[in-house]
Amino acid sequence: MRITSIRTLAVRAPLRIAAKWSGGTRLTAPGVLVFIDTDEGLTGVGECVGPTLPPIQAIVEKEVTPLLIGCEPTRLEWLRHRFFTFAANWKPMARHAWAGVEMALFDLLGKAFNLPVSQLLGGVCRSEVDFIGYVFIDTPEQNARLAADYVRQGFRALKVKVGRNIEQDVERLRAIRGAVGEGVKIRIDSNMAWSVKTAIAAIRKMEGFALQYVEQPVPDWDLEGMAEVRRAVGVPIAADEACTDFRSALELVKRRACDVFVVYLSEAGGFGEAKKIVALAQEEGIACVLGTWAELGVGTLAAVHFVASCQPFPFANDTHYPLQQDDVLDKMLQFQDGKLRVPQAPGLGADLSMAKVQSLSQVQLREAVFFDPDNPDFLPPIGEFL
Question: Is the model's pLDDT at 367 over the cut of 80?
């Protein structure tokens, strides 16, 4: 079996509510679908996500495709090594592109060997995967209503975006905790908004709400500052923007800067590279949770297969999926008590609706992550004294 063509298509699924965070406001869940065709008539599908899709799509079309045409898709390790050697000088965007390509390769091989991707990744450690309910920046009343709705649906963990205004964040957390009670886990994420001193002061004001952990309180480059925050507060610290690939994860370990790795298939560069981060975490006693760039159904299914095949994932994982109005899948994924079961169908188990794919490829809403439609002069706060 050999690869004969690689096709891409950018799609955007509108969100039911605006996803407002410290760095901008997201209106869609955008992705680049990747289709890998073979001479045996099989096609694998994957999904690229990330901070800006046009260059990611261009990398797949202009850089990855010439390297893979005519190759055997079973040579995964060699293909991965070949591509990352080729992309040595532009790895950050290369990783986002390869993640979607590798996803399609695994889907293809699963179909060829009649196995779910989780089995190709080493077999399952769990039969279902937990996810959070995502609460973005809004009024305390709106946040409380959304949080209570998640709990009614069965979600037992919430992720709350913070970082624009500390006092308002405190009021929002108070309203959310009051609405969901003490049995629901709450974590917060400022997305690098705070300086070290601001982070310590802010966390001390918020830790009374029984926080599960605080995600990326300071800029990604300030690992010493993150370690200082970790020593100063009584809440575990998670590294997100500071945990992109194996090398960055290794630096976090060396600096003792965090308790949790937020792992991304996209930022790591696919299943194989993300597995390296998870292996390091397991050796060092660090917990893992899967992050999200607002994956559609294809990427969400890939996340389920990946987490199911790994051991150190004790927390509910990130997803925007319950906020999507539609998806490229024939039927939208259904969460049961905040969980998705691991598909048993060959490959990813992603049944696409090509009518939906074509419809969502026409959505014109702005996809930029760092953008605020209510304030065209908005700049994201990064390491600021607030």
Answer: no
Domain of residue 175, CATH code: 3.20.20.120
- 188 shares a domain with 275: yes
231 with 315, same domain: the answer is: yes
Mean pLDDT of 312-338: 97
Instruction: Determine the Cα–Cα distance for residues 247 and 250; give it in Å rounded to an integer.
Output: 5
Asked if residue 4 lies in contact with residue 43, where contact means CB atoms within 8 angstroms, the answer is no
Q: Beta-carbon neighbour count of residue 66 at 10 Å? A: 11
Half-sphere exposure of 366 (CA within 13 A, CB side): 13
Q: Tell me: do 144 and 293 sit in the same domain.
A: yes
Does residue 262 sit in the same domain as residue 130? yes
CB 225 within 8 A of CB 198: no
Domain extent at residue 150? 119-348
Looking up residue 101, the CATH number of its domain turns out to be 3.30.390.10
Picking from 84, 36, 90, the residue whose alpha carbon sits closest to that of residue 61 is 36
329 neighbors 297 (Cβ within 8 angstroms): yes
Give yes or no: residues 265 and 304 share one domain: yes
How far is the C-alpha of 66 from the C-alpha of 326, rounded, in Å? 33
Indicate whether 365 pLDDT > 80.
no
Tens digits of residue pLDDT in 225-258? 999 999 999 999 999 999 999 999 999 999 999 9
The string of pLDDT tens digits covering residues 132-167 is: 999 999 999 999 999 999 999 999 999 999 999 999
